[in-house]
């Protein structure tokens, strides 16, 4: 097992495109770290640089104590699982699993032992003598995982391994990957653009945008203390509500918006610098409470309910307050109807504040 350390690692493609500006962080030995961000943010590039499939334009990359900038992929002791798991169609599952080992000259007894262990861990025992064509998509993806597992590498690199699976299979395979990680205790780097996958799998998550690391933290810290507006908007579905206005102080702090104002009910010291200046206030949909469903809560604004979306265990209220679109998650038994006005409140401690100019969190 090994840690992976990046020190000011950069990637500039030959056409001049800067895919990764300057990344410095460490993936701890045995950690499952997720790289997440929108399409084109540079996550695959970063993973391929760890694998050695993409050259490093600047900085230093280490696996364990070894600088690997110029080390060939096959000498890095890594295994990669891709989105398009190319299994050999003419080989059985057993042969597919053992192929890489045989190629490396591992003796047959050892190959059999490792294939049996991987097959056991992945529940493929019944399928060992089948060809890939006779497997379901989920089973094929498990074989692809198994091919990485038998190698027993220091570091596993997974690039959107679930994106070809249907929703139900994605969920069960996701749990499978978490289980494998716990059992083998290997360092894993997992790339996805899916925030749910990132939140559920990652011990820590790197949020990337435009080749720049936006934040690196545990899932709950990212959710509860997003470092900037990008992270606040990227994680969480429906996305965080944002109120744009000017901060005023009279009796207490108020956010004055184009139409109306909200009494904030807090006086965070960091906000002193924003009095009479533009400010963005954020509130997660689960923290924007209707007075109808929470009788004890003080009404701080009213909004018009446009669309009510039941999703089973809860209901999304899509509302409008002047120019701002708002979403609230309410209990499934809520009787709020579209076309009505509702009173809304919140617990002041749940507010997030952002600087409109720098987009950074204020606290
Ligand atoms: P996706 O989720 O769509 O796979 P990503 O976050 O993995 O996206 P990358 O594939 O790492 O993104 O690409 C990052 C940026 O670098 C993109 O803007 C992409 O167009 C660009 N890029 C990727 N490969 C090359 C290349 N060989 N030459 C020039 N630019 C490239």
UniProtKB/TrEMBL annotation:
* SUPFAM superfamilies from the UniProt entry: MOP-like, P-loop containing nucleoside triphosphate hydrolases
CDD domains per UniProt: ABC_MalK_N (cd03301)
Asked if Nucleotide-binding is a keyword of the record, the answer is yes
Q: What GO biological process terms does the UniProt entry carry, in alphabetical order?
A: carbohydrate transport
Q: Name one GO molecular function term.
A: ABC-type transporter activity
Task: Enumerate the UniProt keywords alphabetically.
Answer: ATP-binding, Nucleotide-binding, Transport
User: Which residues, if any, are the signal sequence?
Assistant: none
Q: Which Gene3D superfamilies match?
A: 2.40.50.100, Nucleic acid-binding proteins (2.40.50.140), P-loop containing nucleotide triphosphate hydrolases (3.40.50.300)
For this record, an example GO cellular component is: ATP-binding cassette (ABC) transporter complex, substrate-binding subunit-containing
Q: What are the residue boundaries of the ABC transporter domain, all occurrences included? A: 4-235
One Pfam family matching this protein: OB_MalK
Q: PANTHER family from the xrefs?
A: MALTODEXTRIN IMPORT ATP-BINDING PROTEIN MSMX (PTHR43875), OSMOPROTECTIVE COMPOUNDS UPTAKE ATP-BINDING PROTEIN GGTA (PTHR43875:SF1)
| Protein name in UniProt | Glycerol-3-phosphate transporter ATP-binding subunit
């Amino acid at each position: 097992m090994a840690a992976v350390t990046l020190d000011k690692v950069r990637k500039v493609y030959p056409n001049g495109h800067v895919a990764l500006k300057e990344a410095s962080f460490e993936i701890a030995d045995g950690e499952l770290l997720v790289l997440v961000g929108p399409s084109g943010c540079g996550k695959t590039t970063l993973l391929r640089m760890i694998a050695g499939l993409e050259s490093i334009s600047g900085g230093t990359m280490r696996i364990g104590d070894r600088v690997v900038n110029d080390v060939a992929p096959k000498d890095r002791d890594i295994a990669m699982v891709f989105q398009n798991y190319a299994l050999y169609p003419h080989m059985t599952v057993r042969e597919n699993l053992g192929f890489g080992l045989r190629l490396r000259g591992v003796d047959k007894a050892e190959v059999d032992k490792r294939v049996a262990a991987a097959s056991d861990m992945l529940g493929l025992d019944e399928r060992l003598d089948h060809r890939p064509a006779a497997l379901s998509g989920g089973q094929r993806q498990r074989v692809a995982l198994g091919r990485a597992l038998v190698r027993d590498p220091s570091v596993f690199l997974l690039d959107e391994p679930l994106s070809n699976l249907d929703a139900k299979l994605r969920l069960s395979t996701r749990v499978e990957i978490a289980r494998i990680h716990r059992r083998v205790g290997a360092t894993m780097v997992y790339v996805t653009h899916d925030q749910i996958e990132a939140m559920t799998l990652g011990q820590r998550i790197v949020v990337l945008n435009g080749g720049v690391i936006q934040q690196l933290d545990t899932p709950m810290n990212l959710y509860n203390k997003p470092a900037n507006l990008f992270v606040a908007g990227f994680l969480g579905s429906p996305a965080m509500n944002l109120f744009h206005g000017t901060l005023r102080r009279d009796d207490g702090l108020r956010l004055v918006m184009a139409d109306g104002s909200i009494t904030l009910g807090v006086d965070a010291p960091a906000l002193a610098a924003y009095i009479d200046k533009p400010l963005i206030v954020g509130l997660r949909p689960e923290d924007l409470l209707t007075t109808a469903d929470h009788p004890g809560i003080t009404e701080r604004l009213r909004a018009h309910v446009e669309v009510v979306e039941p999703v089973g265990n809860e209901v999304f209220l899509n509302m409008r307050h002047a120019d701002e679109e708002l979403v609230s998650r309410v209990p499934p038994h809520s009787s709020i109807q579209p076309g009505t006005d509702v009173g809304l409140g919140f617990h002041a401690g749940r507010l997030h504040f952002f600087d409109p100019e720098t987009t950074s969190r204020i606290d």
